[in-house]
Design a protein that fits this description.
Layout lengths: L1 H16 L9 H18 L4 H8 L4 H28 L2 H18 L6 H29 L5 H29 L2 H19 L27 H27 L5 H16 L2 H8 L5 H17 L3 H28 L6 H30 L2 H31 L1
Helix pairs in contact: 2-6, 2-7, 2-8, 3-4, 4-5, 4-6, 4-14, 5-6, 5-8, 6-14, 7-10, 7-11, 7-13, 9-13, 9-14, 9-15, 10-13, 12-13, 12-15, 13-14, 14-15
Length: about 400
């Protein structure tokens, strides 16, 4: 009933905008925004709480890193298949299948009595996550006018980033009041809401073209998306360290305000989305990537220092402004360079590196935390961001040299 009323209201918006070819806010775009928000919310609520759950089941920091990281690696392996399925089976099939797997897997955590069972179901959840997030980015790309892709992807990314910001603090709050069984059912309910909303979308039909022999070879990435995706990997490594170990780090240092960290991060991302996408459309990624990366670098150094709650909050603001700028700019860059029939694979490549960064961060930082302590995680994260900035400048110089010689 709720979606029916929403559908009628959004139809009016869609008809009002149908005369313009550069309109972003259509009925289907709003549906994909809300669906993306709910699935990210269900996922993000588990990020800081899964480590606590593993601790409750008897695990240590090393096991926490593996349980968190294996999820992203299973998603990584499935994304190339999702990218091909988007072009052969259609957007709706891949998206609805991925969301269904996500709902079932995350709901199964409520029945987990051992780390082994949790580990296995994290692999299954990664399959659903890999399919659904690859599809959602491609669906959003289909719906956004090419001339406003940076702005549109900024709005689309905002739905996931707000969930990324509010989800962890909401998850921590719920687990302090409820049992893990009830909590995981709530997370599954968020995925179910995304599934219902996604069923209301009118998906772009995939045009089946005669296949050439060169097209029959199965590939695992879109080469035009590799540069921005590689840069993203070094950035998302930092998120693996924050989402997985920051609650444990602040508890060890007896610093209050972890919920404020995620709230301020959310507000900073929200502010950034209002201008970063438009800045990308007007001036390109050169105006966004380095300033955003510098803010993330500063945030990591503040977390490594972390004397009190004030510095925790300042780090949250810096990280939100930086991540909110860099992530949509790199995604728009990855999509813009890809041929029309390879947009799905470009999104698959981009999110594969996104997953790989978080997975590497969770697993490697789990070992670092075990051997050197939590502070070392954020020193290592700052080094990763520095590498990303150096690599970006190198690629920028290389690309300009190639253009001048052409």
């Amino acid at each position: 009933m709720i979606t029916g009323k929403m559908d009628k209201q959004l139809n009016k918006v869609s008809h009002q905008e149908s005369n313009g070819t550069d309109k972003i806010w259509t009925r289907d775009f709003v549906f994909i925004l809300f669906a993306n928000f709910f699935v990210f919310l269900g996922f993000q609520m588990t990020l800081p709480t899964i480590p606590l759950f593993v601790k409750q089941l008897g695990g240590n920091d090393q096991l926490i890193g593996f349980v968190v990281g294996i999820f992203t690696f299973s998603a990584l392996l499935l994304r190339p298949f999702a990218g091909h399925a988007l072009e052969s089976k259609g957007r709706g099939f891949v998206y609805l299948l991925g969301l269904s797997i996500f709902v079932v897997s995350i709901g199964s955590y409520a029945f987990a009595m051992s780390i082994l069972f949790l580990f296995v179901m994290r692999v299954v959840q990664g399959v659903g996550w890999g399919f659904s997030t690859t599809a959602s980015g491609t669906i959003a790309t289909d719906l956004i006018p090419a001339k406003r892709r940076g702005e549109g992807m900024g709005y689309f990314g905002l739905s996931g980033n707000i969930a990324m910001a509010f989800g962890p603090s909401l998850g921590l709050g719920l687990t302090s009041m409820l049992s893990f069984t009830s909590f995981f059912f709530i997370c599954a309910g968020c995925g179910l809401a995304a599934l219902i909303l996604s069923s209301r979308i009118t998906y772009k039909k995939v045009e089946q073209k005669p296949k050439k022999k060169a097209d029959e070879k199965f590939d695992f990435y879109e080469k035009t998306a590799l540069q921005p995706s590689l840069l993203l990997l070094f950035i998302t490594v930092t998120f693996g360290g924050i989402a997985t170990f920051l609650p444990l780090y602040t508890a060890e240092k007896h610093i209050a305000g972890i919920q404020w960290y995620f709230l301020l991060f959310a507000l900073a991302v929200l502010v950034t989305r209002l201008f970063a996408g438009k800045l990308y459309d007007k001036r390109g990624h050169q105006a966004v990537v380095i300033p955003g990366a510098l803010l993330i670098f500063a945030a990591m150094l503040l977390l490594a220092w972390l004397p009190d709650t004030a510095m925790l909050c300042l780090a949250a603001i810096f990280y939100g402004l930086g991540f909110g700028s860099v992530q949509p700019a790199l995604q728009a860059w990855a999509i813009d360079k890809a041929p029309m029939n390879r947009k799905g694979m470009a999104n698959a490549t981009f999110f594969s590196f996104f997953d790989l960064g978080i997975g590497i961060g969770a697993m490697v930082f789990g070992q670092i935390a075990h051997l050197l302590g939590y502070r070392s995680i954020y020193l290592a994260s700052s080094l990763s961001v520095f590498i990303s900035m150096v690599l970006y400048l190198f690629l920028l110089f290389k690309n300009r040299t190639v253009k001048s010689q052409a």
